[in-house]
Automatic annotation (TrEMBL):
CDD domains: AdoMet_MTases. One of its GO terms (molecular function) is polyprenyldihydroxybenzoate methyltransferase activity. InterPro entries: Methyltransf_11, SAM-dependent_MTases_sf. GO terms for biological process: methylation. This is S-adenosyl-L-methionine-dependent methyltransferase.
Length: 240
């Protein structure tokens, strides 16, 4: 993987369009929405929460109580390690939500981005960004409807968290759909890195000679809440 050329993105979090008064009055409901999403027990409940939250999700996470920096940090890493020419990189944004990762990648020069997410309502918001070529409803707890060895980069940001998606089969599916020599760039909320089985799954994939670990760093996630996440970058082996 050629990393000689470095791509940099400015840290960008969407500005809120709400007045200060509404920000104050809605802080509790936003915290409740995030807590409910992280407490989801199945995909149906999770989808119901995001159906209600989709229209204000970006504004909510842009506030000081949110400051959701993970999408840009992950996009920076993907473009830094993943391609000399981001305009030609074929990218999958798995769990794309409202399109924050796609927007960050697009500002960095990426033009060929597919997105998949459980929530049709979140995908409608993502479509309006203009960052994606294709958007598909899909459940990351199941096999991904994509060809093997297809994507240069597979992104997954904000999905490996409480009440959402576990490591198996998602990580193995990301490896399957990535090209040989392609990257998997994912955030895993810190509390679940070990206890949720993510560290063990990465080690298993490495032991099977499917991937090598390029980078593994603890980074800010939802900065306004003090949340941290492990930002892991994996490269699919040429023999996988």
């Amino acid at each position: 993987m050629n990393t000689a050329q470095r791509f940099r993105l400015s840290i960008f979090v969407p500005k809120s369009t709400q007045s200060p008064g509404s920000i104050t009055s809605n802080t509790m409901s936003r915290a409740t929405q995030l807590s409910q999403a992280r407490a989801s027990v199945d995909s149906k409940q999770c989808m119901s929460i995001y159906e209600k939250w989709a229209s204000t999700y970006n504004d909510d996470l842009a506030e000081s109580t949110g400051n959701y920096v993970a999408p840009v940090l992950a996009a920076q890493a993907a473009l830094r390690f993943g391609s000399d020419n981001p305009a030609k990189a074929v990218i999958l944004d798995a769990g794309c939500g409202t399109g924050l990762v796609g927007q960050a990648l697009s500002r960095g020069g990426a033009t060929i981005i597919d997105g998949v997410d459980l929530s049709p309502h979140m995908l409608k918001v993502a479509e309006k960004t203009g960052a994606y070529q294709n958007l598909t409803v899909g459940d990351l707890t199941q096999p991904i409807d994509a060809l093997e060895d297809f994507y240069d980069i597979v992104m997954c940001v904000g999905t490996f968290t409480h009440g959402h998606v576990g490591p198996d089969p998602a990580l193995r599916e990301f490896v399957r759909v990535a090209k040989r020599g392609g990257l998997i760039v994912a955030t895993i909320i810190d509390e679940l890195w070990v206890s949720g089985g993510f560290k063990a799954e990465v080690e298993k994939l490495e032991a099977e000679d499917l991937i090598r670990v390029v980078s593994m760093e603890l980074e800010d996630y939802v900065k306004g809440r003090g949340d941290k996440a492990t930002l892991v970058i994996l490269e699919k082996n040429s023999t996988a």
